[in-house]
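pasting for ref
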Amino acid sequence: MPSRPLLSACLIVRDEEACLARCIESLRGIVDEIVVVDTGSTDRTVEIASGYGAKVHSFAWQDDFAAARNRSLSAAAGVWALWIDADEELSLKDAAALRGRLSREDIGGFDLEIINFTEDEGDRGQFVHWATRIFRLLPGVEFTGRVHEQITPSLAALGLHWEPLSCAGIRHYGYRPAQMRAKNKIQRTVALLEADVAEHPADTHQWFNLANAYLVAGRYKEAEAAAESCLRQVDGFAPYVGVCYQILSSARMATGDLDGALEACAGADANGWNGPVNEFERACALSRLGRFGEAIGACSLCRELAFRDGEPGDRTVQTHKSVVLEANCHLALGEAAKAREAVQMLFESDPGYVPAALAFAQASERHGDFQAAGRAFELAWQSEPGLTDAWVGWARCCEASGDSKGMLRAFEHYGKLAEPTADMLIDWGRALAASGANERALECFGEAIKREPSNANAYFNCGDLLYGLGAYPDAAHIYEAGLRHSPGYAQGWFTLGNCLAQMSLSGGASTCYRQALEIDPAHEAARHNLGLVAA
Protein backbone atom coordinates (compact mmCIF):
# COMPACT_ATOMS: atom_id res chain seq x y z
CA MET A 1 0.00 0.00 0.00
CA PRO A 2 1.45 3.42 -0.93
CA SER A 3 2.45 5.63 2.00
CA ARG A 4 0.32 8.61 2.88
CA PRO A 5 1.47 11.93 1.30
CA LEU A 6 3.24 14.19 3.75
CA LEU A 7 1.97 17.60 2.57
CA SER A 8 -1.20 18.43 0.64
CA ALA A 9 -1.73 21.88 -0.86
CA CYS A 10 -5.41 22.79 -0.55
CA LEU A 11 -6.93 25.51 -2.74
CA ILE A 12 -10.44 26.80 -3.37
CA VAL A 13 -10.81 28.62 -6.69
CA ARG A 14 -13.20 30.40 -9.00
CA ASP A 15 -12.23 32.07 -12.28
CA GLU A 16 -8.54 32.22 -11.45
CA GLU A 17 -7.01 31.53 -14.88
CA ALA A 18 -4.92 34.72 -14.67
CA CYS A 19 -2.95 33.65 -11.59
CA LEU A 20 -3.45 29.94 -10.86
CA ALA A 21 -0.41 28.78 -12.83
CA ARG A 22 1.89 31.08 -10.82
CA CYS A 23 0.55 29.63 -7.59
CA ILE A 24 0.90 26.00 -8.66
CA GLU A 25 4.39 26.59 -10.09
CA SER A 26 5.47 27.79 -6.64
CA LEU A 27 4.28 24.47 -5.14
CA ARG A 28 5.95 22.08 -7.56
CA GLY A 29 8.56 19.85 -5.96
CA ILE A 30 7.51 20.99 -2.48
CA VAL A 31 4.07 19.52 -1.83
CA ASP A 32 3.11 15.90 -2.44
CA GLU A 33 -0.33 16.59 -3.85
CA ILE A 34 -2.45 19.54 -4.91
CA VAL A 35 -6.17 19.55 -4.16
CA VAL A 36 -8.24 22.16 -5.99
CA VAL A 37 -11.90 22.73 -5.12
CA ASP A 38 -13.64 24.74 -7.82
CA THR A 39 -16.71 26.73 -6.77
CA GLY A 40 -18.10 27.54 -10.21
CA SER A 41 -15.41 28.75 -12.64
CA THR A 42 -16.46 29.79 -16.13
CA ASP A 43 -12.94 30.33 -17.47
CA ARG A 44 -9.95 27.96 -17.93
CA THR A 45 -9.29 27.50 -14.20
CA VAL A 46 -10.22 23.81 -14.09
CA GLU A 47 -8.28 23.09 -17.29
CA ILE A 48 -5.14 24.73 -15.89
CA ALA A 49 -5.40 22.90 -12.55
CA SER A 50 -5.91 19.54 -14.29
CA GLY A 51 -2.98 20.23 -16.59
CA TYR A 52 -0.71 20.46 -13.55
CA GLY A 53 -1.98 17.14 -12.22
CA ALA A 54 -4.07 18.61 -9.42
CA LYS A 55 -6.98 16.65 -7.96
CA VAL A 56 -9.94 18.80 -8.97
CA HIS A 57 -13.30 18.70 -7.19
CA SER A 58 -16.46 20.77 -7.63
CA PHE A 59 -18.34 22.43 -4.80
CA ALA A 60 -21.44 24.61 -4.96
CA TRP A 61 -20.66 28.04 -3.48
CA GLN A 62 -22.59 28.72 -0.26
CA ASP A 63 -21.35 32.23 0.64
CA ASP A 64 -19.12 30.53 3.19
CA PHE A 65 -15.36 30.28 2.72
CA ALA A 66 -14.96 27.89 5.66
CA ALA A 67 -17.38 25.41 4.08
CA ALA A 68 -15.46 25.42 0.80
CA ARG A 69 -12.11 25.08 2.52
CA ASN A 70 -13.36 22.20 4.65
CA ARG A 71 -14.36 20.45 1.43
CA SER A 72 -10.75 20.78 0.25
CA LEU A 73 -9.52 19.27 3.53
CA SER A 74 -11.86 16.30 3.19
CA ALA A 75 -10.38 15.60 -0.27
CA ALA A 76 -6.76 15.78 0.91
CA ALA A 77 -4.79 12.66 1.77
CA GLY A 78 -1.76 14.27 3.40
CA VAL A 79 -0.53 14.23 6.97
CA TRP A 80 -0.27 18.01 6.76
CA ALA A 81 -2.21 20.61 4.79
CA LEU A 82 -0.92 23.83 3.29
CA TRP A 83 -3.75 26.34 2.87
CA ILE A 84 -3.04 28.64 -0.05
CA ASP A 85 -5.06 30.70 -2.54
CA ALA A 86 -4.69 31.05 -6.29
CA ASP A 87 -3.64 34.70 -5.99
CA GLU A 88 -0.78 33.71 -3.69
CA GLU A 89 2.52 31.93 -4.14
CA LEU A 90 4.66 29.96 -1.74
CA SER A 91 8.04 31.49 -1.00
CA LEU A 92 10.46 28.85 0.26
CA LYS A 93 13.89 29.53 1.68
CA ASP A 94 14.85 25.97 2.65
CA ALA A 95 12.90 22.92 1.44
CA ALA A 96 14.87 20.51 3.63
CA ALA A 97 14.14 22.60 6.71
CA LEU A 98 10.44 22.58 5.88
CA ARG A 99 10.31 18.80 5.52
CA GLY A 100 12.24 18.47 8.76
CA ARG A 101 9.77 20.60 10.69
CA LEU A 102 6.90 18.51 9.35
CA SER A 103 8.43 15.43 10.98
CA ARG A 104 7.56 16.77 14.41
CA GLU A 105 4.65 15.15 16.17
CA ASP A 106 4.37 17.59 19.07
CA ILE A 107 2.83 20.46 17.18
CA GLY A 108 -0.45 21.14 15.40
CA GLY A 109 0.52 23.85 12.92
CA PHE A 110 2.87 26.54 11.73
CA ASP A 111 2.41 30.27 11.18
CA LEU A 112 3.79 31.66 7.93
CA GLU A 113 4.66 35.27 7.21
CA ILE A 114 2.26 36.61 4.57
CA ILE A 115 3.32 39.62 2.53
CA ASN A 116 0.26 41.35 1.08
CA PHE A 117 1.08 43.70 -1.79
CA THR A 118 -1.09 46.79 -1.59
CA GLU A 119 -0.12 48.76 -4.70
CA ASP A 120 -1.04 47.89 -8.28
CA GLU A 121 2.59 47.75 -9.43
CA GLY A 122 5.80 46.58 -7.79
CA ASP A 123 6.36 45.31 -4.27
CA ARG A 124 6.86 48.59 -2.40
CA GLY A 125 3.52 48.61 -0.59
CA GLN A 126 3.43 45.72 1.86
CA PHE A 127 1.11 44.84 4.70
CA VAL A 128 2.66 41.95 6.60
CA HIS A 129 0.86 39.53 8.89
CA TRP A 130 1.27 35.97 10.11
CA ALA A 131 -1.31 33.19 9.86
CA THR A 132 -1.46 29.45 10.49
CA ARG A 133 -1.22 28.11 6.94
CA ILE A 134 0.33 24.67 7.56
CA PHE A 135 -1.49 22.35 9.96
CA ARG A 136 -2.16 18.70 10.71
CA LEU A 137 -5.00 16.94 8.93
CA LEU A 138 -6.76 15.33 11.88
CA PRO A 139 -10.38 14.58 12.70
CA GLY A 140 -11.88 17.75 14.14
CA VAL A 141 -9.42 20.10 12.44
CA GLU A 142 -11.61 22.40 10.37
CA PHE A 143 -12.14 26.01 9.35
CA THR A 144 -14.63 28.40 10.95
CA GLY A 145 -15.85 31.77 9.68
CA ARG A 146 -17.72 32.71 6.51
CA VAL A 147 -14.80 34.96 5.49
CA HIS A 148 -11.34 35.55 6.95
CA GLU A 149 -11.77 31.96 8.05
CA GLN A 150 -9.49 30.45 10.70
CA ILE A 151 -8.12 27.01 11.46
CA THR A 152 -6.60 27.80 14.87
CA PRO A 153 -9.81 27.57 16.97
CA SER A 154 -10.13 23.90 16.03
CA LEU A 155 -6.43 23.26 16.76
CA ALA A 156 -6.83 24.90 20.16
CA ALA A 157 -9.93 22.82 20.88
CA LEU A 158 -7.83 19.67 20.35
CA GLY A 159 -5.10 20.97 22.65
CA LEU A 160 -2.67 21.49 19.77
CA HIS A 161 -0.36 24.47 19.57
CA TRP A 162 1.28 26.22 16.65
CA GLU A 163 4.45 28.24 16.16
CA PRO A 164 6.16 30.45 13.55
CA LEU A 165 7.97 28.89 10.63
CA SER A 166 10.80 30.99 9.21
CA CYS A 167 11.86 28.84 6.26
CA ALA A 168 8.70 29.52 4.23
CA GLY A 169 6.28 32.34 3.57
CA ILE A 170 3.49 33.45 1.25
CA ARG A 171 3.29 36.33 -1.19
CA HIS A 172 -0.28 37.55 -1.69
CA TYR A 173 -1.26 39.61 -4.73
CA GLY A 174 -5.02 39.71 -4.25
CA TYR A 175 -5.06 42.97 -2.29
CA ARG A 176 -3.76 45.01 -5.19
CA PRO A 177 -6.42 47.75 -5.67
CA ALA A 178 -7.19 46.83 -9.29
CA GLN A 179 -7.88 43.21 -8.34
CA MET A 180 -10.00 44.23 -5.37
CA ARG A 181 -12.16 46.37 -7.66
CA ALA A 182 -12.34 43.78 -10.44
CA LYS A 183 -13.61 41.07 -8.12
CA ASN A 184 -15.84 43.32 -6.04
CA LYS A 185 -14.08 41.92 -2.99
CA ILE A 186 -14.90 44.70 -0.56
CA GLN A 187 -18.68 44.53 -0.90
CA ARG A 188 -18.66 40.73 -0.75
CA THR A 189 -16.37 40.69 2.28
CA VAL A 190 -18.44 43.26 4.18
CA ALA A 191 -21.65 41.30 3.63
CA LEU A 192 -20.13 38.03 4.85
CA LEU A 193 -18.51 39.64 7.88
CA GLU A 194 -21.74 41.39 8.86
CA ALA A 195 -23.49 38.03 8.80
CA ASP A 196 -20.71 36.47 10.89
CA VAL A 197 -20.72 39.06 13.67
CA ALA A 198 -24.52 38.98 13.77
CA GLU A 199 -24.32 35.25 14.56
CA HIS A 200 -21.21 35.48 16.76
CA PRO A 201 -21.15 38.94 18.38
CA ALA A 202 -18.32 37.95 20.73
CA ASP A 203 -15.95 37.03 17.88
CA THR A 204 -13.47 39.88 18.21
CA HIS A 205 -11.36 38.70 15.28
CA GLN A 206 -14.30 39.12 12.94
CA TRP A 207 -15.18 42.50 14.47
CA PHE A 208 -11.62 43.53 13.69
CA ASN A 209 -11.91 42.22 10.13
CA LEU A 210 -15.25 44.02 9.68
CA ALA A 211 -13.76 47.29 10.94
CA ASN A 212 -10.96 46.97 8.40
CA ALA A 213 -13.39 46.15 5.58
CA TYR A 214 -15.54 49.16 6.44
CA LEU A 215 -12.43 51.37 6.43
CA VAL A 216 -11.36 50.15 2.99
CA ALA A 217 -14.92 50.67 1.73
CA GLY A 218 -14.93 54.27 2.98
CA ARG A 219 -17.66 53.61 5.55
CA TYR A 220 -15.79 55.42 8.31
CA LYS A 221 -18.41 55.76 11.03
CA GLU A 222 -19.18 52.04 10.76
CA ALA A 223 -15.46 51.27 10.84
CA GLU A 224 -15.14 53.29 14.03
CA ALA A 225 -18.06 51.46 15.67
CA ALA A 226 -16.76 48.01 14.67
CA ALA A 227 -13.25 48.81 15.93
CA GLU A 228 -14.67 50.03 19.24
CA SER A 229 -16.71 46.81 19.54
CA CYS A 230 -13.59 44.74 18.97
CA LEU A 231 -11.48 46.67 21.47
CA ARG A 232 -14.18 46.50 24.18
CA GLN A 233 -14.15 42.70 24.08
CA VAL A 234 -10.73 41.62 22.91
CA ASP A 235 -7.91 40.01 24.83
CA GLY A 236 -5.32 42.77 24.86
CA PHE A 237 -2.60 40.38 23.66
CA ALA A 238 -4.32 39.33 20.42
CA PRO A 239 -1.90 40.13 17.57
CA TYR A 240 -4.40 42.30 15.69
CA VAL A 241 -5.10 44.71 18.56
CA GLY A 242 -2.47 47.22 17.43
CA VAL A 243 -3.93 47.34 13.92
CA CYS A 244 -7.42 47.73 15.38
CA TYR A 245 -6.28 50.90 17.16
CA GLN A 246 -4.88 52.07 13.84
CA ILE A 247 -8.24 51.47 12.14
CA LEU A 248 -9.99 53.40 14.91
CA SER A 249 -7.59 56.32 14.53
CA SER A 250 -7.81 56.32 10.71
CA ALA A 251 -11.62 56.18 10.74
CA ARG A 252 -11.82 59.13 13.10
CA MET A 253 -9.34 61.14 11.05
CA ALA A 254 -11.37 60.44 7.91
CA THR A 255 -14.42 62.07 9.52
CA GLY A 256 -12.42 65.05 10.78
CA ASP A 257 -12.31 63.94 14.42
CA LEU A 258 -8.58 64.60 14.88
CA ASP A 259 -8.72 64.80 18.67
CA GLY A 260 -10.52 61.45 18.67
CA ALA A 261 -7.77 60.02 16.48
CA LEU A 262 -5.17 61.13 19.03
CA GLU A 263 -7.26 59.54 21.77
CA ALA A 264 -7.13 56.24 19.86
CA CYS A 265 -3.34 56.54 19.68
CA ALA A 266 -3.21 57.23 23.42
CA GLY A 267 -5.37 54.14 23.98
CA ALA A 268 -2.86 52.05 22.05
CA ASP A 269 -0.07 53.47 24.22
CA ALA A 270 -1.95 52.69 27.43
CA ASN A 271 -2.55 49.10 26.39
CA GLY A 272 1.02 48.36 25.33
CA TRP A 273 0.61 48.76 21.57
CA ASN A 274 2.80 51.78 20.92
CA GLY A 275 4.72 50.81 17.82
CA PRO A 276 5.65 52.20 14.40
CA VAL A 277 2.10 52.15 13.06
CA ASN A 278 0.64 53.91 16.09
CA GLU A 279 3.31 56.63 15.95
CA PHE A 280 2.63 57.18 12.27
CA GLU A 281 -1.09 57.55 12.98
CA ARG A 282 -0.25 60.07 15.70
CA ALA A 283 2.00 61.98 13.30
CA CYS A 284 -0.79 62.15 10.70
CA ALA A 285 -3.29 63.53 13.20
CA LEU A 286 -0.81 66.07 14.61
CA SER A 287 0.13 67.32 11.14
CA ARG A 288 -3.52 67.82 10.21
CA LEU A 289 -3.98 69.80 13.43
CA GLY A 290 -1.09 72.05 12.38
CA ARG A 291 1.16 70.77 15.16
CA PHE A 292 4.00 70.16 12.75
CA GLY A 293 6.87 70.09 15.23
CA GLU A 294 5.19 67.36 17.27
CA ALA A 295 4.36 65.48 14.07
CA ILE A 296 8.03 65.52 13.06
CA GLY A 297 8.93 64.02 16.44
CA ALA A 298 6.33 61.27 15.99
CA CYS A 299 7.70 60.48 12.51
CA SER A 300 11.17 60.11 13.95
CA LEU A 301 9.91 57.82 16.73
CA CYS A 302 7.99 55.75 14.15
CA ARG A 303 11.28 54.88 12.47
CA GLU A 304 13.07 54.19 15.76
CA LEU A 305 10.54 51.70 17.11
CA ALA A 306 10.60 48.06 16.00
CA PHE A 307 7.73 45.85 14.91
CA ARG A 308 7.20 43.00 17.35
CA ASP A 309 7.72 39.45 16.19
CA GLY A 310 4.56 38.45 14.36
CA GLU A 311 3.00 41.90 14.63
CA PRO A 312 0.90 42.72 11.56
CA GLY A 313 1.16 46.09 9.92
CA ASP A 314 2.17 48.28 7.02
CA ARG A 315 5.97 48.20 6.87
CA THR A 316 6.11 51.25 4.61
CA VAL A 317 5.16 53.54 7.50
CA GLN A 318 8.82 53.28 8.50
CA THR A 319 10.56 53.10 5.15
CA HIS A 320 8.47 55.55 3.10
CA LYS A 321 5.38 57.18 4.58
CA SER A 322 6.85 58.72 7.74
CA VAL A 323 9.79 60.11 5.74
CA VAL A 324 7.49 61.93 3.32
CA LEU A 325 5.22 63.16 6.10
CA GLU A 326 8.21 64.57 7.98
CA ALA A 327 9.41 66.39 4.86
CA ASN A 328 5.94 67.85 4.28
CA CYS A 329 5.80 69.04 7.89
CA HIS A 330 9.12 70.86 7.41
CA LEU A 331 7.69 72.44 4.25
CA ALA A 332 4.63 73.59 6.19
CA LEU A 333 7.01 75.25 8.67
CA GLY A 334 8.85 76.98 5.82
CA GLU A 335 11.95 74.82 6.33
CA ALA A 336 12.73 73.92 2.72
CA ALA A 337 16.33 72.87 3.36
CA LYS A 338 15.33 70.51 6.18
CA ALA A 339 12.49 69.11 4.09
CA ARG A 340 14.86 68.37 1.24
CA GLU A 341 17.38 66.76 3.56
CA ALA A 342 14.67 64.62 5.17
CA VAL A 343 13.43 63.08 1.92
CA GLN A 344 16.49 63.16 -0.37
CA MET A 345 17.84 59.71 0.50
CA LEU A 346 14.42 58.07 -0.01
CA PHE A 347 13.91 59.90 -3.31
CA GLU A 348 17.31 58.86 -4.61
CA SER A 349 16.87 55.23 -3.58
CA ASP A 350 13.27 54.93 -4.81
CA PRO A 351 12.63 57.67 -7.39
CA GLY A 352 9.45 55.94 -8.58
CA TYR A 353 7.74 56.57 -5.24
CA VAL A 354 5.59 59.53 -6.21
CA PRO A 355 5.01 61.08 -2.73
CA ALA A 356 8.79 61.22 -2.16
CA ALA A 357 9.42 62.67 -5.63
CA LEU A 358 6.81 65.37 -5.04
CA ALA A 359 8.13 66.25 -1.59
CA PHE A 360 11.70 66.48 -2.90
CA ALA A 361 10.54 68.54 -5.88
CA GLN A 362 8.59 71.00 -3.75
CA ALA A 363 11.44 71.35 -1.25
CA SER A 364 14.00 71.85 -4.04
CA GLU A 365 11.83 74.44 -5.78
CA ARG A 366 11.41 76.45 -2.61
CA HIS A 367 15.14 76.09 -1.99
CA GLY A 368 15.77 77.63 -5.41
CA ASP A 369 17.18 74.51 -7.09
CA PHE A 370 14.84 74.55 -10.09
CA GLN A 371 16.79 71.99 -12.10
CA ALA A 372 16.58 69.35 -9.35
CA ALA A 373 12.95 70.24 -8.71
CA GLY A 374 12.12 69.93 -12.41
CA ARG A 375 13.72 66.47 -12.61
CA ALA A 376 11.79 65.29 -9.55
CA PHE A 377 8.48 66.65 -10.85
CA GLU A 378 9.21 64.95 -14.18
CA LEU A 379 9.80 61.59 -12.46
CA ALA A 380 6.57 61.97 -10.50
CA TRP A 381 4.65 62.73 -13.71
CA GLN A 382 6.19 59.76 -15.52
CA SER A 383 5.27 57.44 -12.64
CA GLU A 384 1.72 58.80 -12.43
CA PRO A 385 0.80 60.63 -15.66
CA GLY A 386 -2.61 61.65 -14.40
CA LEU A 387 -1.04 63.80 -11.70
CA THR A 388 -1.50 67.24 -13.26
CA ASP A 389 0.15 69.07 -10.34
CA ALA A 390 3.38 67.18 -11.04
CA TRP A 391 3.27 68.20 -14.69
CA VAL A 392 2.58 71.84 -13.83
CA GLY A 393 5.52 71.82 -11.40
CA TRP A 394 7.75 70.26 -14.04
CA ALA A 395 6.90 72.89 -16.64
CA ARG A 396 7.12 75.71 -14.08
CA CYS A 397 10.60 74.69 -12.93
CA CYS A 398 11.83 74.26 -16.51
CA GLU A 399 10.73 77.81 -17.26
CA ALA A 400 12.31 79.14 -14.06
CA SER A 401 15.65 77.49 -14.89
CA GLY A 402 15.56 78.48 -18.56
CA ASP A 403 15.39 74.86 -19.66
CA SER A 404 13.51 75.23 -22.95
CA LYS A 405 14.28 71.64 -23.96
CA GLY A 406 12.79 70.42 -20.70
CA MET A 407 9.73 72.59 -21.32
CA LEU A 408 9.28 71.04 -24.75
CA ARG A 409 9.64 67.54 -23.32
CA ALA A 410 7.03 68.33 -20.69
CA PHE A 411 4.52 69.56 -23.26
CA GLU A 412 5.19 66.66 -25.61
CA HIS A 413 4.48 64.20 -22.79
CA TYR A 414 1.31 66.00 -21.78
CA GLY A 415 0.04 66.23 -25.33
CA LYS A 416 0.27 62.45 -25.74
CA LEU A 417 -2.04 61.81 -22.80
CA ALA A 418 -4.49 64.68 -22.57
CA GLU A 419 -5.84 67.74 -24.36
CA PRO A 420 -3.84 70.79 -23.26
CA THR A 421 -5.72 73.91 -22.23
CA ALA A 422 -5.35 77.19 -24.11
CA ASP A 423 -2.91 78.48 -21.48
CA MET A 424 -0.84 75.30 -21.79
CA LEU A 425 -0.75 75.72 -25.57
CA ILE A 426 0.50 79.29 -25.13
CA ASP A 427 3.34 78.14 -22.87
CA TRP A 428 4.08 75.28 -25.24
CA GLY A 429 4.26 77.75 -28.12
CA ARG A 430 6.67 79.97 -26.18
CA ALA A 431 8.95 77.00 -25.50
CA LEU A 432 8.86 76.01 -29.15
CA ALA A 433 9.69 79.55 -30.22
CA ALA A 434 12.61 79.66 -27.79
CA SER A 435 13.99 76.50 -29.40
CA GLY A 436 13.56 77.88 -32.93
CA ALA A 437 10.56 75.70 -33.89
CA ASN A 438 8.62 78.72 -35.10
CA GLU A 439 6.07 76.99 -37.31
CA ARG A 440 5.05 74.62 -34.54
CA ALA A 441 4.93 77.55 -32.12
CA LEU A 442 2.54 79.40 -34.42
CA GLU A 443 0.40 76.26 -34.61
CA CYS A 444 0.19 76.18 -30.79
CA PHE A 445 -0.80 79.86 -30.60
CA GLY A 446 -3.35 79.37 -33.36
CA GLU A 447 -4.86 76.36 -31.62
CA ALA A 448 -5.03 78.32 -28.34
CA ILE A 449 -6.93 81.11 -30.13
CA LYS A 450 -9.24 78.58 -31.73
CA ARG A 451 -10.04 76.93 -28.40
CA GLU A 452 -10.37 80.18 -26.45
CA PRO A 453 -11.02 83.12 -28.80
CA SER A 454 -11.18 85.60 -25.92
CA ASN A 455 -7.71 84.71 -24.57
CA ALA A 456 -5.81 87.92 -25.28
CA ASN A 457 -2.51 86.38 -24.15
CA ALA A 458 -2.67 83.95 -27.06
CA TYR A 459 -2.94 86.82 -29.56
CA PHE A 460 -0.12 88.82 -28.00
CA ASN A 461 2.30 85.85 -27.89
CA CYS A 462 1.45 85.01 -31.48
CA GLY A 463 1.95 88.64 -32.46
CA ASP A 464 5.33 88.77 -30.71
CA LEU A 465 6.56 85.76 -32.69
CA LEU A 466 5.30 87.14 -36.01
CA TYR A 467 6.95 90.49 -35.24
CA GLY A 468 10.24 88.71 -34.47
CA LEU A 469 9.97 86.94 -37.83
CA GLY A 470 9.45 90.25 -39.64
CA ALA A 471 5.84 89.49 -40.60
CA TYR A 472 4.70 92.97 -39.55
CA PRO A 473 1.29 93.13 -41.27
CA ASP A 474 0.28 89.73 -39.83
CA ALA A 475 1.61 90.72 -36.42
CA ALA A 476 -0.35 93.99 -36.50
CA HIS A 477 -3.53 92.13 -37.37
CA ILE A 478 -3.05 89.70 -34.45
CA TYR A 479 -2.17 92.51 -32.00
CA GLU A 480 -5.35 94.37 -32.98
CA ALA A 481 -7.40 91.25 -32.30
CA GLY A 482 -5.78 90.86 -28.89
CA LEU A 483 -6.46 94.48 -27.98
CA ARG A 484 -10.13 94.04 -28.77
CA HIS A 485 -10.23 91.53 -25.91
CA SER A 486 -7.82 93.42 -23.63
CA PRO A 487 -7.93 97.14 -24.53
CA GLY A 488 -6.26 98.19 -21.28
CA TYR A 489 -2.99 96.36 -21.96
CA ALA A 490 -0.39 99.11 -22.47
CA GLN A 491 2.31 96.75 -23.77
CA GLY A 492 -0.08 95.52 -26.45
CA TRP A 493 -0.56 99.06 -27.77
CA PHE A 494 3.20 99.58 -27.65
CA THR A 495 3.97 96.46 -29.69
CA LEU A 496 1.22 97.30 -32.20
CA GLY A 497 2.81 100.73 -32.55
CA ASN A 498 6.16 99.08 -33.26
CA CYS A 499 4.56 97.00 -36.02
CA LEU A 500 3.05 100.08 -37.64
CA ALA A 501 6.35 101.95 -37.37
CA GLN A 502 8.12 99.08 -39.14
CA MET A 503 5.50 99.40 -41.90
CA SER A 504 6.25 103.20 -42.12
CA LEU A 505 2.77 104.04 -40.81
CA SER A 506 3.98 106.81 -38.49
CA GLY A 507 0.55 108.28 -37.75
CA GLY A 508 -0.87 104.99 -36.63
CA ALA A 509 2.27 104.22 -34.61
CA SER A 510 2.01 107.61 -32.83
CA THR A 511 -1.62 106.91 -31.94
CA CYS A 512 -0.68 103.54 -30.46
CA TYR A 513 2.22 104.93 -28.40
CA ARG A 514 -0.04 107.71 -27.03
CA GLN A 515 -2.65 105.10 -26.08
CA ALA A 516 0.02 103.08 -24.26
CA LEU A 517 1.10 106.20 -22.35
CA GLU A 518 -2.47 107.09 -21.46
CA ILE A 519 -2.86 103.67 -19.88
CA ASP A 520 0.62 103.62 -18.32
CA PRO A 521 2.26 107.05 -18.09
CA ALA A 522 5.47 105.39 -16.83
CA HIS A 523 5.94 103.37 -20.05
CA GLU A 524 9.29 104.90 -21.03
CA ALA A 525 9.77 102.75 -24.12
CA ALA A 526 6.50 104.07 -25.57
CA ARG A 527 7.54 107.67 -24.77
CA HIS A 528 10.91 107.11 -26.44
CA ASN A 529 9.44 105.59 -29.60
CA LEU A 530 6.78 108.29 -29.82
CA GLY A 531 9.57 110.84 -29.93
CA LEU A 532 11.28 108.93 -32.72
CA VAL A 533 8.23 108.71 -35.02
CA ALA A 534 7.26 112.32 -34.30
CA ALA A 535 10.71 113.64 -35.23
